[in-house]
Amino acid sequence: MLLYTPTTQLGFRRASRNFLELTKFKLSVLNSLVTVSAFALYPSAVSGVPLFLSSLALSMSTQALNQCIEVPYDKLMVRTSQRPLVVGAFSRWFAIACGMGLGALGMYGLSLYNLKTMLIGGVIWAGYLLVYTPMKRT
């Protein structure tokens, strides 16, 4: 089973751009900056860098998995009809593997802070995928 279009066919630059679009990297960075900004308001001996990277991975995960769920609907809208999964740049299996891997990495990073932080991240992750994504269609 082919998980992605080989980079020899797609080109490394194009594959990288498609991956960044699949995970909505810019949006995920902004989300992580907001998270770390809130963290920085309170004095702490712990660095905010792992929090930034963990929330970045978790956000990228939700974006990739969201696009997996939305493929049939994205095909119908002009604005979303050129997304990587819709045009076949990556398979759904590749996007699921990336989404789950990034999600696991993000959850692990949040668990290094404490269990409560990890649980909050997990609830937000699940809420986005299981509540917000289906609600967009109603």
Write up this protein:
The chain is mainly α. The chain has one domain (7-135): UbiA prenyltransferase (Tetracycline Repressor, domain 2, Orthogonal Bundle). Helix content is 74%, strand content 0%. It has helices at 7-10, 12-22, 25-40, 49-74, 84-87, 92-111, 115-135.
Q: Shape, please? A: globular
Instruction: Please identify which CATH superfamily we are dealing with.
Output: UbiA prenyltransferase
Helix count equals 7
**Fraction of residues in helices?**
over 70%
Helix and strand composition category: mainly alpha
Radius of gyration: 16 Å
Could you report the average pLDDT, rounded to the nearest whole number?
91
Question: How much of the residues is beta strand, in percent?
Answer: under 5%
CATH architectural category: Orthogonal Bundle
Total number of distinct structural domains: 1
Q: H/E series, N to C?
A: HHHHHHH
Kindly list the characteristics that best describe this protein.
138 residues, mainly alpha, 74% helix
SSE layout and pairing:
Layout: H1 7-10, H2 12-22, H3 25-40, H4 49-74, H5 84-87, H6 92-111, H7 115-135
How would you sum up this structure in a few lines?
This protein is mainly α. The chain contains seven helices and no strands.
